[in-house]
Amino acid sequence: MKSPKTLILEAELTKKLVGIKEALNAIEDAFRRMGQAKTKMPAKLYLNLPQFKGDFRAMPAWVEGFKGCAIKWVNVHPLNKNKGLPTVMGIIILSDPATGFPLCVMDATHLTALRTGAAGGVAAKFLARKESRKVGLVGCGVQARTQLAAIFEIFNIDEVKVWGPKPKEIMCFINFAKKLPRAKKVKIEKANTIKDCVKDSDIIVTTTPSRKPLVRRGWIKEGVHINAIGADACGKQELDYKILKRAKVVVDDLRQASHSGEINVSLRKGKFHKKDIYADIGEVVAKRKKGRVKRSEITVFDSTGLAIQDVAIANIVYRKAMQLKKGKFVKFVS
Predict the structure, then answer these.
(1) Are residues 150 and 242 in the same domain?
(2) Which neighbouring-strand residues pair with 329?
(3) With 90 as the cut, is the pLDDT of residue 182 above it?
């Protein structure tokens, strides 16, 4: 019997195989299956290396009905931007759940941003007001790009304001945003302050590595939805704890959010409690709990990034590559 081979997918190819619309569908499906108890996802494993000012994370998962299990090995090194490297890089190994055979090894740097943007889009779909028109982006890096692309797919946005610490990075982001397919009639401009960025927004997205609150309770309006994306490690925080106390808070995963999500600092300081969490996103997408029920609700999605998202995105990338006969095969198993 001829031994099977493993498909290798490089970075540029993964970018071409899947777009934000397909990612949105895949991530919503994964969240729904999580809410239906059709997933297995051990806790994310952290390898902290403070001497290098970075860390690694190992993220395995299985989703019933998908072709493969997956594990992602991903890093976060904020100083990489000064070295000409991405802050976040990763690879995904997709394996056959029935035999364990490695079906595919793929670059996950772009896919991580894509699936995270899609998760924010799905959360906004269920938690933001349907008539949302104004977006405020606190942070203007790679994560902000896919977050905005996902929001554009779901809402008829009229205005986008973006804030970042460096004017050059803001202008780079604005130039990117104006080229998005649905950005033709959207007003996209720089905000001079975070307050100006968020004060009139219907949807706020925070994508910074901050370790202190950036968005204050008094700056946001009633009925706003916030995608809190940046806090993905212990000690990180972007929102005033008073926002969490006022809001309907939905997490992606309670274990991860408690340790490393937006709520982690407020939990440890006793400013916020686990009983204050309304639901996880799987419960909302699976309709076990309602999303937004009032126009005046402030809603927050605490996103830490789930391994089931990587399973979802890896499966569609692998399927597309096989259909289009892309990538190259190597013999890992004799």
Answers:
(1) yes
(2) 7
(3) no
Rounded distance, CA 305 to CA 58, Å?
A: 12
DSSP string, 297-314: --EEEE----HHHHHHHH
Instruction: Report the C-alpha gap between 321 and 8 in whole angstroms.
Output: 10
Structure tokens at 320: 């597309």
User: Given this model, what pLDDT does residue 43 score?
Assistant: 87
SS3 241: helix
Token pair for 311:
């399973």
Main-chain phi, psi angles of 267, to 5 degrees: -65, -50
301 is in which domain, residue-wise?
117-305
CATH of the domain at 201: 3.40.50.720
Could you tell me if residue 54 is inside a domain?
A: yes
Check if 2 is active-site: no
Per-residue pLDDT tens digits for 59-117: 999 999 898 899 999 998 989 988 889 888 999 999 999 999 999 999 999 999 999 99
Residue 12 included in any domain? yes
Are 297 and 318 members of one domain?
no
Q: Give the number of C-alpha atoms closer than 13 A to the C-alpha of residue 153, restricted to the C-beta side.
A: 22
Residue 297: inside a domain: yes
259 and 288 belong to one structural domain: yes
Please tell me whether residues 142 and 84 are part of one structural domain: no
pLDDT at 242: 97
Pairing of strands 248-251, 237-239: unpaired
Candidate list 72, 125, 199, 236, residue with the active-site label = 72
The b/e string for 90-111 (b: 16+ C-beta within 10 A; e otherwise) is: bbbbbbebeeeebbbbbbbbbb
